[in-house]
């Protein structure tokens, strides 16, 4: 067999995984830690897997500086499952704390496709509740700007009455629209803040203490698809029989009480996350990774901004370091641009099907030289196509 | 490093995976199909992953002879998630078909821990519905026999009015209690039959046409933990806005309409299932596998029945071919028995923590010679301990 091509994987997720991580998984595939078994064959109740699970939690705790009053849960079903779980469990936590209000509010900052979907799921589920639960869009970029790509200033946000609000929800990085919050949204200290960090998880330090819940799927920065990590402040764990009736597997307290093993967890995916966390430590931790991510993103946005051919539809105040979206001056040129990348072994540069254009996802695992090669291609493409136009 | 020990893995799940499957996954770990990428790095929307997903479906369809009027779904969250999904979706299907009855019944055959948990989840969720939904235990082994380990004759089962019944549910193989149905339960043809086959999936041929829904987690006979397979008759797919309000990710029709990719599916786990299906084909398919499973189970039950030291608490009419549970004459001897197995590299022989005793799970992947070695140990243990007692 010929040597495999070196692929520059700009996929939005599942995404590139560091080669050293894959190599380690490969070498241990049939014999983990001299057990004679694959990680996939280990009982989730075995001591060997217990070490993997707890080790992964401990590494995450250290890397993110997660305080002791938070639980780390491993769940399944991706962010869309969490849309429902967050609604159910945090409304339950509010009701457990206060009893029934006449009306409870759940507040959403809508800055792109994913936070919008989360708000829609809450609206759908809220209709079924006996208590009145109102989904309030604190801000809605599409309504305010006609499209996603900007976030209105915080002083225009309309929060609900904090005494009656179960949570404020936002998506820290919108994978489809390339919009990332550069500060933690400021909310009333009585109200738990919930962040979907699926696509910028561990790409920068995060002050966990400011959050009630932080969650994300693994398949962008943390490993393979099939496991979600939920970090939740312990006082928000409500009993299953309080609040909205919810499937057992979506109940945070059941997960916490059973150390994420109420039933069989996705053992191999958790192991892979552990290996990625080891790699992150080797890279120098989150502060180091953040510096690299800043450098990679700056280069790419500069290349876009300094060209007449490319333009970024996202306001500079909220451009994602992870998902860099841009357009060319015509769709015909975009098609041509994308046709040219495949022979360079650059993959997954096409924008999300709902928005078109180009999207380069440059997660933690993406080396700076791959970004450089993309920029070199952009420059040569520009040269060829602006000369041709002259 | 020394050569790894050969381990005899009697785990109930996650369980042994055929070595050739693990070797193939290992060889392709960094470079699947000369893509230069790991399966874990492939976009779920890529053609390469599309081939894996559709190939896995096709193989399953052929192996199980699944008719065209069934959908195959890949979901997450294990059987416990399906407890809720089955309730939500099949009540919805009944309501979509008939409108609202005064009362709808959901019927459960309770033959062990798992079917009991499924019935409990339905009871909990039913309370939240505006329509009256009654969970009826058609039979309940614990109530009838004082403990699990038998199934009452079919002529004693008390079904609800078929015209008002959304489904009849049973667990085809009870992993904890070692109870397996040897025939398909006969139900009124108007009522969809639902089977949890998590622990005997693909261990024998199954007449799919007799079922409304067949589902199972992969981590026993099909690969790693983290993916569940749901086979559902298409006329049972109800619209999301009909019936019980349910999380989007638990909606069968949403999964079907999006080819199991409403969001990112557990791509690597699906790939592994595909490899296990290839292996099953190499073994000669389900009829062949069934013969081997019959032979392995018979040997082991014979060794138990022919000994004064061992006894099987499960009635011969419903003994599982997959999970062979047995007791010794005292708990002290059981402890001694389990202490002796580890030096022989036999693992996971301890019975489920809720029942104690010994459990040997002998899934498809377990070679007959491993069963032989277990029996040899049982015989030598018996010899040592009956001589000692004389």
UniProtKB/TrEMBL annotation, chains A, B:
Pathway terms, separated by semicolons: Amino-acid biosynthesis; L-serine biosynthesis; L-serine from 3-phospho-D-glycerate: step 2/3
Catalytically driven reaction(s): 4-(phosphooxy)-L-threonine + 2-oxoglutarate = (R)-3-hydroxy-2-oxo-4-phosphooxybutanoate + L-glutamate; O-phospho-L-serine + 2-oxoglutarate = 3-phosphooxypyruvate + L-glutamate
Keywords recorded for this protein, A-Z: Amino-acid biosynthesis, Aminotransferase, Pyridoxal phosphate, Serine biosynthesis, Transferase
Gene Ontology CC entries for this record: cytoplasm
Cofactor: pyridoxal 5'-phosphate
SUPFAM superfamilies on file: PLP-dependent transferases
Domain (Aminotransferase class V) ranges: 8-374
Record has Transferase as a keyword: yes
EC number: 2.6.1.52
Family: Belongs to the class-V pyridoxal-phosphate-dependent aminotransferase family. SerC subfamily.
Protein name: Phosphoserine aminotransferase
Source species of the chain: Absidia glauca (Pin mould)
